[in-house]
Design goal:
The chain has 116 residues and is an all-alpha fold. Helix content is 90%, strand content 0%. The chain is elongated and about 65 Å long.
Amino acid sequence: MNNVSLLAIEATLSITTSVAITWMIARPLKAALMDLCPTEQQANFWLAYTRVMLLITPLLLVLFTSARHSGDMFSDLRAAFIAAFTGLLAGLIIIGRKMYIPVDRQIHKANRGDNV
């Protein structure tokens, strides 16, 4: 298999996994954003932003690792899987941490209200 075909397979793998993950979290993420954002337009923006970031980050990592082909197709595809899932994991961790900040504030605010 030539390098162009392998790169196309790796990019498709990355995009497919990203689309699957964003599809799975879209509804609950939009509901959470609707609770956290003052307007629906802001929630829609952050949902679109999250989708783009979860698409770009894994793809960039796959493209970066693809430049280091070893010639063994199995190893190259394995590296692409690792890069795609590492990008998704990093993106989801960042999203989770950012989404937890206002939730944590609400929890602390509610706890302070109970003690008063």
